[in-house]
Amino acid sequence: QQQVKQSPQSLIVQKGGIPIINCAYENTAFDYFPWYQQFPGKGPALLIAIRPDVSEKKEGRFTISFNKSAKQFSLHIMDSQPGDSATYFCAATISGNTPLVFGKGTRLSVIA
Amino acid sequence: KAGVTQTPRYLIKTRGQQVTLSCSPISGHRSVSWYQQTPGQGLQFLFEYFSETQRNKGNFPGRFSGRQFSNSRSEMNVSTLELGDSALYLCASSLGLAGSDEQYFGPGTRLTVT
């Protein structure tokens, strides 16, 4: 029940494409869903986060779509650039109660 | 504002030895969480400290321990190292409890056990 399943494991898109990374969870008590971006040799950095009271959130080229009934959420990267090549992690938690539970990560490569 | 710092950045130890890793959180942050990152298992939670008290503990053996000091700096210790302990150990700090506030990660300590 504490798992977050992330797919795909890896993704290759051309510059300008829209990569989509999906995550699914089981625990309906989760109420905070962040996405992290990690470059080689660096720690993960918070990219964007959503709570279940909204179905979509945009920050720049990054959009989270949230489907509460399906217990799924996804990250879309608009107009992807080679600099977006990184590993992306979704996570979930019960605010103030449990630690972040991370998906296994998606390695994204954006080729010019 | 300085970010989360971790020392050392790289460490090579022999099986059976013990190791201590250090984490200095962002100034003013009271929560420090530790994670183990491996290619196979991804990011796995080790423990969280808030105001010097362990709040949560992940599913790791007792060989993994930690503590937090009054200045919020934290250390984690691994005793009787095993080959499988080779990983990137990440520390993250937040203003309040993890999950309530944004977590900021350090660059990690790369531990290699031979």
Produce a short descriptive summary.
The complex is a heterodimer of chains A (112) and B (114). Chain A is mainly β.
Explain what the structure shows.
- With 112 residues, chain A is mostly beta strands.
- Chain A is built from no helices and eleven strands.
- In chain A, strands 2, 4, 5, 9, 10 and 11 form a six-stranded mixed beta sheet that branches. A five-stranded antiparallel beta sheet of chain A has the order 1-3-8-7-6, with no helix packed on it.
- In chain A, a hairpin with a 2-residue loop joins strand 6 and strand 7.
- With 114 residues, chain B is an all-beta fold.
- Helix content of chain B is 0%, strand content 53%.
- Chain B is globular.
- The termini of chain B are far apart.
- The mean pLDDT of chain B is 94.
- Chain A binds chain B through residues 32, 34, 36, 41-46, 49, 89, 93-105, and chain B through 4, 33, 35, 41-45, 48, 56, 58, 90, 92, 96-100, 102-108.
* Structural class by secondary-structure content of chain A: mainly beta
Annotation, overall tally of beta strands of chain A: 11
Total number of helical segments of chain A?
0
Structural class of chain B: mainly beta
Distance between termini of chain A?
40 Å
Whole-angstrom Rg of chain A: 13 Å
**Hey, which two chains have the biggest interface?**
A-B, 24 and 25 residues
Strand content of chain B: over 45%
**What quaternary form is this?**
heterodimer
Instruction: Identify the overall geometry of chain B.
Output: globular
Whole-number radius of gyration of chain B? 13 Å
Shape verdict of chain A:
globular
Per DSSP E runs of 2 or more residues, the count of β-strands of chain B stands at: 11
Q: Beta-strand percentage of chain A? A: over 45%
Distance between the termini of chain B: 37 Å
Count of helices of chain B?
Answer: 0
Low-confidence stretches of chain B: none
Largest sheet of chain A: 6 strands, mixed
